[in-house]
Amino acid sequence: MTMTVQSPTDAAARDWPRLAFVAVVSLILLYGAFYLYQVSQPVFGAILLALATGFAIVFGAQRFYGGRFIFPGIAAVLIFIAFPVIYTIYIGFTNYSSFNLLTYDRTVEVLTSRGTVDPATEQPFAVAVDGDAYRIWLPDSGLISTPVTLEGEAAAELTPSAPPETLLERRDAIKLRGGLQALTLTTPDGVIIQNAGLRTFATVTPEYTQTGPDTLTRADGTTITANHDTGFFETADGTPVPPGWRVNIGTDNFERIANSQGIREPMVSIFIWTFVFATLSVLLTFAVGLALAVILQWEHLRFKAVYRVLLILPYAVPAFISILVFKGLFNQNNGEINLILNGLFGISPKWFTDGNLARSMLLIVNTWLGYPYMMLLAMGFLQSVPADHKKAAALEGASAVRVFFTITLPQIIPPFLPLLIASFAFNFNNMVLVFLLTRGLPDIPGTVIPAGETDILASFTYRLAFDNAGQQFGLAGAITLLIFIVVAAISYANFVAMRRAAQRRSGRA
């Protein structure tokens, strides 16, 4: 018996395609990281750099062969779950909002670029081509500039001239607006004019001039000073001048939640409603689904197959379509539900303007969407209940209802419990239903933030961050952290309860 020994040359020849692939992918990721750093996205560049390093090490070295199977999953969890959570928590400790989007340097640049146009000097312009450069033609004053490239900041002199033969079309001149905005022209009288829009040049007086490291002076002599605690330039009396820049503000967002009645009260109301909504949704869908499953198990029921298909149809239709259909059915003026109620009882409920009715409508629609799932599960679990137990109880004289609650239900609840907990977690964050059906409306009166009576915590946070004129990302991040802590506590409590229940069952066994 002979043993073949593989030479290092053969191993290298076999591995070179893999190593070449790893090298190419790593170089692409490194280039992406470098590009993100260049466009002022250092955090995402660092993430891509870490991904490139991990990919090269795990897939390049044979000793980490086992890690190749779990690396994609770990990378996905870190990038798409851990990083968003950590970044959102970080945002909660900043003043990040629609008024504080910029960096400090960019804020200074924006404020000093503002200017007041003198209407007396405003005049239209056109652009003429001069070889590889351009000339600016002012037809009202008959002046033309010296050649300029319109690349970066530039200055040119204006001299009297006849109209140039060829002028650029307006749409072609607009493409040069970057260079035009950085161009300064000087008239023969020494007047300096700048680009004042897409069609004119004029004398532009800067609104603010930088007079110190943290001070800007307005044209009227008023001085504003940078406050790095609030992220705004402020006047002497403390009035902020937008736009501002992002700064760390510690626990100010959390103190604002605790101390502001206009934030605290709607948050508590929404928090309670979220629990009620998730709990009632689980109970209603479970009760309706289980009841229908029991009915479909009745051996004397005819046309079972037809009923099963009809009852599963809501599960087959995409949820967003069903929600929009129900939105039309519940229309207060022309909806079929109100037309029927008005015809039978003379009432037309205000489903979308009354808070309690709007919440009831959410529960009705969510029950319709969720019962087929529970019904399918229950049909399977009911099959696993031993028929001998039910027959023995029936022989003892127990009614069908008592058999169900004393024998059938206790045996299907344990396998149902994890699914009920998962359903609770889903409905706790069921933002799609709220947004498509009510958008959180009607609004809660007396609040200083967008908050509605049908909002759950997820939709409330989304509206606060993205669906508001004064988008408050920092405050939304702080609320998200509180939600994360609450949900984590609930999940841990459920885990402990399930473990203790399992231990009790094993002890009885």
From TrEMBL:
Chief localization: membrane
Pfam families tied to this protein: BPD_transp_1, MalF_P2
Oligomeric and partner information: The complex is composed of two ATP-binding proteins (MalK), two transmembrane proteins (MalG and MalF) and a solute-binding protein (MalE).
Residue stretches making up the ABC transmembrane type-1 domain: 271-494
Topology relative to the membrane: Multi-pass membrane protein
Keywords: Cell inner membrane, Cell membrane, Membrane, Sugar transport, Transmembrane, Transmembrane helix, Transport
Organism of origin: Cognatiyoonia koreensis
InterPro entries given in the database record: MalF_N, MalF_P2, MalF_P2_sf, MetI-like, MetI-like_sf
Protein name as catalogued: Maltose/maltodextrin transport system permease protein
Subcellular location: Cell inner membrane; Cell membrane
GO MF annotation, one: ABC-type maltose transporter activity
Lineage, highest ranks first: Bacteria, Pseudomonadati, Pseudomonadota, Alphaproteobacteria, Rhodobacterales
Residue ranges of the TM segments: 20-37, 43-62, 69-93, 270-293, 305-326, 361-382, 403-426, 473-495
PANTHER family on file: MALTOSE/MALTODEXTRIN TRANSPORT SYSTEM PERMEASE PROTEIN MALF, MALTOSE_MALTODEXTRIN TRANSPORT SYSTEM PERMEASE PROTEIN MALF
